[in-house]
Specification:
The protein is an alpha+beta fold. It has 10 helices and 12 strands.
């Protein structure tokens, strides 16, 4: 994918509670897992940068997965049970029986959490953003899918697109084995993309709301972000507060300031962190909590990634 995909190709079937951290589902460099499961999980690359997965898992204890997702499109059908995660603070919940799409235009941190006793049976596709763009260049019918990557994160249910859900169910209940199974997975995976592209292309765009000047909109958004650096509003919350759509707000901010709101927030947090560290009045953990990090280790990693050295060397 555009950056390392935390999900590895693997297959397991647990008859008794077993550690997910040891199951080989995730690349340990990009994900941390706490919890155990009973049941099966399967992930298989059907084409380079196109991965199919399914699972039927029970979680006897609390599940928590911290990971960095690359710029990509994920198409999921929860067949039974539940799933949810937070990405950059926004809660996304998957409803059983309805296909959902998650589009990320850039790498983002995600945290999946489920309560003990939870159950999830689902099937889905993970598509690298780069691969999706290559497909769109080859086939104009797939170009509408690029709108799902958007600017930042897009998450939506598709109750009006049952064809995608049926195809994912067929993938889950594949009756074949060996080479025939691989061909079946590849053909149906591509069919999912075609059906989804047709669905997106057929949407009727809502009438545009009256627009305020991009300069005013972007500067007002920046002011609100600066006022709440430790607990910033999500883009959706900010857009609602300013009375515009998410896409309108993202585009205005990027055009005026040359970066996304997420990039701006990270920059401001890291620059403020450096200033506070240089004052020598607070410990690293205190500064981390002040800037909204629940885990000082996450703050240290973010600081090192931005400044090139750990906070203790500031």
């Amino acid at each position: 994918m555009n950056s390392p995909n935390p999900y590895l190709d693997t297959h397991f079937s647990f008859d008794s509670p077993s550690s997910l951290a040891q199951a080989g589902v995730f690349d340990r460099r990009t994900a941390q897992v706490m919890g155990s499961a009973v049941g099966h999980y399967h992930a298989h690359t059907v084409r380079e940068h196109l991965q199919y997965f399914d699972c039927d898992l029970q979680f006897p204890e609390p599940l928590r997965i911290e990971k960095v997702l690359p710029g990509s499109l994920c198409i999921v059908q929860v067949l039974d049970g539940q799933w949810q995660h937070r990405i950059e603070g926004r809660l996304n919940q998957y409803e059983a029986g309805t296909p959902h799409v998650l589009g990320l235009s850039e790498s983002m941190q995600a945290v999946d959490t489920l309560a003990p006793g939870s159950h999830a049976r689902m099937a889905g596709l993970r598509v690298a953003g780069r691969y999706l763009r290559e497909l769109a260049e080859e086939d104009p019918n797939l170009r509408p899918l690029l709108a799902l990557l958007g600017d930042g994160m897009r998450f939506s249910a598709l109750p009006a697109c049952p064809a995608v859900g049926r195809l994912l169910e067929q993938l889950y209940h594949c009756p074949y084995h060996g080479a025939l199974k691989r061909l079946h997975q590849e053909s149906l995976s591509l069919a999912v993309l075609v059906e989804l592209g047709a669905h997106v292309a057929g949407r009727v765009a809502p009438p545009d709301a009256p627009q305020r000047g991009q300069q005013d909109l972007a500067h007002e958004a920046r002011r609100l972000l600066d006022e709440h650096l430790a607990d910033p509003p999500t883009v959706l919350e900010l857009a609602r507060q300013l009375g515009v759509g998410e896409t309108t707000l993202r585009r205005a901010f990027a055009k005026v300031f040359g970066q996304s709101m997420l990039q701006y927030l990270r920059q401001q947090r890291m620059e403020l962190a450096r200033t506070l560290l240089l004052q020598r009045k607070w410990q690293v953990a205190q500064i981390a909590y002040r800037l909204g990090y629940a885990n000082p280790a996450n703050f240290s990693n973010a600081y090192k990634a931005y400044h090139g050295h750990p906070p203790g060397m500031a």
